[in-house]
Amino acid sequence: MSKKILVLGGAGYIGSHTYVELLESGYDPAIVDDFSNAEHKVIERLKALTQRDVRFYEGDCNDAAFMEKVIGTEGDVHAVIHFAAFKAVGESVEKPLKYYENNIGSLLVLLNKMTAHQIPHLVFSSSCTVYGEPDKLPVTESTPRKPAESPYGNTKQICEDIIADCVRSKAAIKAIALRYFNPMGAHPSGLIGELPIGAPNNLVPFVTQVAAGVREKLTVFGNDYPTPDGTCVRDYIHVVDLAKAHVKALEHLSHLNESNHYDIINIGTGEGNSVMEVIKTFEKVSGQPLNYVIGPKRDGDVETVYANADKAKQVIGWTSELTLEDGLRDAWRWQQSLKEEDSQ
Ligand code: UD1
Could you give the CA distance from residue 236 to residue 306 in angstroms, rounded to a whole number? Predict the structure, then answer.
């Protein structure tokens, strides 16, 4: 019998890609999502992509009674992957309580339920945002965390600490927090990808929307940083590689003998690319020029951050395989498929 995995936030961008990789690795995943930042058609697209029915529960992971019902219905749950969180940095500054309540509340509900139902494994979505502007590059997992720049970033730090405390208290939970660098790209099938609601905050979906004519131009946030070309540098990780890292993390947890474990692992490529490099690479893979202007710096932006991803290789046997070109090509294919859908 395949092991049951609950994917909280499984209709979202990273969650939906992870759902596919879990299935391909022989697991039996089920999605839990309130569709507050995802569309129902993701489920239909997942069915088309996997040629299988999709088991999903619609509701709020912050609602303990709902989660109780989900876990009761599922039965023997092997692991939970927790993606369900709000992630808009700017909004978190305006509505901090919404972020603290949802992102921390849902983790508390989950840890309580995991303990009560003896669910042993957890993979948690954290972010390189916890490193802030690092003093030394590339960042390793022991690079000190910096005070969070936003309530969103703070929720990631607090959630990491909550899991660490729980494990320290000898709760029977084995957990890994994955610190994602900058996820981008889409499934090569063109069937799933990022579905930003409103204007995207992140670079790659903004680029593809400009290229598709949905938005007029991209503003590059500053070009006088002390970097080789003056624009900010990030570690762009293909979402399919990122999804696979969750499967590897689960496998690693399942093989541990101890019943109580917590670790933190960076998930990035280990390479930094500037905003201008992203634009130039996009122009190359799409074969068309991108309309962009140089604008002022964005408040709170970090100049350069990229991962040392050695620990992921050593501990869970994962390394990224896909390139920036692959990611931009896949993101562009996905954007074009959305456009076709709109015109039908
Ligand atoms: C942002 C979040 C981070 C979160 C991550 C998730 C902020 C300050 N940080 O990271 O907490 O974990 O997303 O993916 O929002 N850029 C432009 N023009 C644009 C958009 C972006 O020049 O229209 C530049 C940014 O200045 C940055 C790079 O592109 O240098 C990447 O930006 P973005 O995709 O927003 O990611 P981060 O800022 O790294």
Answer: 9
Q: Which residue's CA is the nearest one to ligand 1's atom 25?
A: 221
Domains contained in the chain, CATH given: 4-184+237-268+306-320 (3.40.50.720)
- Neighbouring C-beta atoms of residue 161, cutoff 10 Å: 11
Q: With beta carbons less than 8 A apart as the criterion, state whether 179 and 235 touch.
A: no
CA separation for the pair 109, 57 (Å, rounded): 16
| pLDDT for the residue numbered 69 | 98
pLDDT value of residue 196: 87
Record the pTM: 0.97
Taking the centre of ligand 1 as the mean of its atom positions, its distance from the CA of residue 24, in whole angstroms, is 31
- pLDDT class of 128 with cuts at 50, 70, 90: very high
Residues with CB under 6 A from ligand 1: 89, 127, 129, 153, 182-183, 201-203, 206, 218-221, 232, 234, 275, 298, 300-301
Q: Are 121 and 254 in contact (CB under 8 A)?
A: yes
Instruction: In whole angstroms, give the CA distance from residue 124 to residue 201.
Output: 22
Q: Which of 13, 128, 129 to mutate to test the pocket of ligand 1 (most atoms within 8 A of CB)?
A: 129
- The ligand 1 atom nearest the CA atom of 234: 39
298 Cα nearest atom in ligand 1:
26
**Res 236: pLDDT:** 98
Segment 271-311, tens digit of pLDDT: 999 999 999 999 999 999 999 999 999 998 999 999 999 99
| Rounded distance from Cα 336 to ligand 1 centre (Å) | 22
